[in-house]
Every structure is written in structure tokens, then in C-alpha cells.
Design brief:
This protein is mainly β and about 300 residues long. It has 2 domains: about 10-195, Jelly Rolls; about 200-300, Jelly Rolls. Helix content is about 5%, strand content about 40%. It has helices at about 10, 215-220; strands spanning about 30, 35, 55-60, 65, 70-75, 85-90, 95, 105, 110-115, 120-125, 130-135, 135-140, 145-150, 155-160, 170, 185, 190, 195, 205, 210-215, 225-230, 250-255, 260-265, 265-270, 275, 285, 295-300. The strands form 7 sheets. It has a 7-stranded antiparallel beta sheet, with no helix packed on it. A 7-stranded antiparallel beta sheet has the order 4-5-6-14-9-12-18, with no helix packed on it.
Length: about 300
């Protein structure tokens, strides 16, 4: 699910490697596409956090645009975190077959979370098509071929991808599903993950008063990123814990309810559909949430 241009040289039969985003690191081949990217490291994880991380907030009322396969897109990170990430709220208003095709992306990291409805999808070497339902998510490894087959009315997903600028390529030769099934196969050093909300286990979150379920993307991405859903646990803290992070990305999308995010003593009232990215080293806390609050969280590193 991407709103990016299909590379014409592949559609026309060209086979040359394509650089997706430049940097000084050696190129890696991801699904037949040569990709280079900046490796960002922080002290805790041996990663250097960039000094131009931005606070971004995208309100639910932000404008929608029509993208690939007649999907509607809402930009959740308009400033792209310095070009490192793009996050999109994607909607298919109708139902039935989706005019999609077998394709793949030259990416470093990509995850898709189903907010509402369902989509029938199929992935290379992952068996027959399956239904991605509300609360489910996938880790979509670099270069894995896939296709959206059909959807329920009002399908909504949130997609987070790195880097912000990357290519989408059609594959006119591969048919899905593939005859082989290899769930442990690595694509660009990562393994496909399908997380089912109905089978998830809740555990304490890092913020007192909340619990979370993890999607298992951390181990499958070799620690690159993780996806969580957090909600109030009923164990109310005496005071909202003030925390910081030293990672590359801390992204929240409000799935339900409302909450006040306080950053450096500045309040931000967040409603359903709002999204924020909180820079490393910024003190923040969650206060005054409703009982039905649910937060989608994507972090890099895991």
C-alpha cells in the first residue's frame, strides 16, 4: 500500500539497480533493488540519533489525497522527519476487489496496521491469501512481493515507512500466491510478520498506568523497529511519569479516545485520528486520558 510512483524502467523491462536514498553506507540488495541508506545509531543501542528530529503533529482533519490503486491518503508526517520516515493514513471507501497488482518496495522498514475493516492480502512465500483485520498488522520486509486483493467498506490502515522517498516496483512475472511457503525466509535481512490482535497478549507498558501488546516485529526486523498498541490498565499512577527517549522514531496514532500529551510542560490535546512524532531528548507525559484510549505506537529501534 504505497502512494509512490511505479518505476518505469522496470515496467519497460529495464533491470538496472535503483538508488532509493543516498548516503555513505554500502549499498544492499533488497528484493533485487540496490538500496543505500543512512544507518542512524544512538548511545544506548550503538546508534547515532540525528540532531534534526522534529516534533510533528497531524490532526485528524488534515486533507486527503488520491494515491495508488484509488486509495485515499492522509499525510501523518508532513515534514518527513528530515526525510527519514513517511507515515500515511490510508482509506478505501468502497468494497470488493482492489485494482492492485503484484509489486514490491525498495525500503529499509515498513509496517502496516489495520485500523478499521479488513483487507484480503497475499504475500510472497507466505501461503494463501489472508484477511488483515482491525487491530492486525504486518511487517512488510524490503523487496517482498505482495498484493491487495479486496477490502471491506471503509477499510483504514496506517502505514509507516523508512525512508520517506523510496520506489515502488511492479512485478509482472511473479504470480501470487507462490507455490512454495517459507515463513522463515529473509527479505533484506528481515522476516515477514503477521500479527493477529485476537491472539495478542497484554503486558505492562513502559508508562505506569498502561498496558500494551507487541506485534513481534522487533525480533523479525533484527531489532530495527517495533509496533505496539497501548491502553489504560486501570492502575492509575499518583502522577503522570515524565519520560524521554533516545531513539530514531517515536510515533503515536490515536486509534480511539482522547489524551493530553504534555511536552516540556506544553499541552497537546490529542483526539482519535491525530498523530504525533516526539523527538529524542524531549520530556513528555500522558495525562487526562479517556477510558477507551488506544494508542498505536511505532518505534525505531525496537
Amino acid at each position: 500500500m504505497e502512494a509512490h510512483q511505479v518505476a518505469g524502467d522496470l515496467l519497460d523491462g529495464g533491470a538496472g539497480p535503483v538508488e532509493v536514498v543516498a548516503d555513505e553506507q554500502p549499498a544492499a540488495t533488497l528484493g533485487g533493488v540496490e538500496v543505500t541508506h543512512r544507518v542512524l545509531r544512538s548511545r544506548r543501542y550503538g546508534r547515532v540519533v540525528p540532531d534534526d528530529l522534529l516534533f510533528e503533529r497531524s490532526p485528524a482533519a488534515r486533507e486527503w489525497e488520491v494515491g495508488r490503486a484509488e486509495m485515499r491518503y492522509r499525510d501523518l508526517l508532513p515534514r518527513r522527519q528530515g526525510g527519514r520516515f513517511i507515515a500515511s493514513h490510508i482509506v478505501i471507501a468502497g468494497s470488493g476487489p482492489v485494482p492492485d497488482y503484484v509489486h514490491h518496495h525498495g525500503v529499509r522498514f515498513q509496517t502496516i496496521f489495520c485500523v478499521r475493516g479488513w483487507a484480503q492480502v497475499v504475500y510472497q512465500d507466505q501461503g494463501p491469501p489472508f484477511r488483515l483485520a482491525a487491530g492486525d498488522c504486518v511487517l512488510q520486509p524490503p523487496g517482498i512481493r505482495h498484493r491487495v486483493l479486496e477490502s471491506s467498506p471503509g477499510l483504514e490502515v496506517v502505514e509507516v515507512t523508512s525512508p520517506a522517498e523510496h520506489q515502488t516496483f511492479a512485478d509482472e512475472e511473479l504470480e501470487l500466491p507462490t507455490p512454495t511457503r517459507d515463513p522463515g525466509r529473509l527479505f533484506g535481512g528481515q522476516r515477514f510478520v503477521r500479527h493477529r490482535a485476537a491472539e495478542a497478549h497484554w503486558q505492562p507498558w513502559r508508562l505506569t498506568g498502561f498496558e500494551c501488546r507487541e506485534a513481534g516485529i522487533g525480533p523479525a526486523s533484527d531489532g530495527l523497529g517495533e509496533v505496539r498498541v497501548a491502553r489504560p490498565s486501570g492502575n492509575l499512577p499518583s502522577a503522570a511519569p515524565v519520560v524521554e527517549h533516545d531513539g530514531e522514531l517515536l510515533f503515536w496514532f490515536v486509534l480511539a479516545g482522547t489524551v493530553c500529551l504534555t511536552m516540556d510542560a506544553r499541552p497537546e490535546e490529542l483526539d482519535e485520528g491525530d498523530a504525533v512524532a516526539i523527538p529524542a531528548g524531549t520530556s513528555h507525559a500522558l495525562e487526562r486520558w479517556t477510558d477507551d484510549l488506544e494508542l498505536l505506537e511505532v518505534t525505531l529501534p525496537a
